[in-house]
Design brief:
Blueprint (H helix, E strand, L loop, with lengths): L18 E8 L2 E9 L4 E6 L2 E2 L9
Antiparallel strand pairs: 1-2, 2-3, 3-4
This protein binds zinc ion (ZN).
The site of zinc ion (ZN) has 7 residues, from loops.
C-alpha cells in the first residue's frame, strides 16, 4: 500500500488516527507492518500490502 493511504485510514472502532509501526517496505510501498490505534490500544496488521482493518473480535 502507498503511504498516502494512511491519511484516509482510521480506526474502524473509534475512528481515531492510526500510527504506523514496524513497517517493512518493498520499493517505496508498505508491504507489512502494524497500524496501531492508541485509543483502543489495538494494532491492525498490514499483510502483503493489504491493511486488515477488521475490528477486534468481541470477546463476550
Ligand atoms: Zn481505535
Amino acid at each position: 500500500m502507498k503511504d498516502s493511504l494512511l491519511e484516509i485510514l482510521v480506526c474502524p472502532v473509534c475512528h481515531g488516527p492510526l500510527e504506523l509501526r514496524d513497517v517493512e517496505r518493498i520499493d517505496k510501498e508498505i508491504n507489512a507492518g502494524l497500524l496501531f490505534c492508541a485509543r483502543c490500544n489495538y494494532g491492525y496488521k498490514i499483510v502483503e500490502g493489504i491493511p486488515n482493518l477488521l475490528p477486534p473480535e468481541n470477546k463476550s
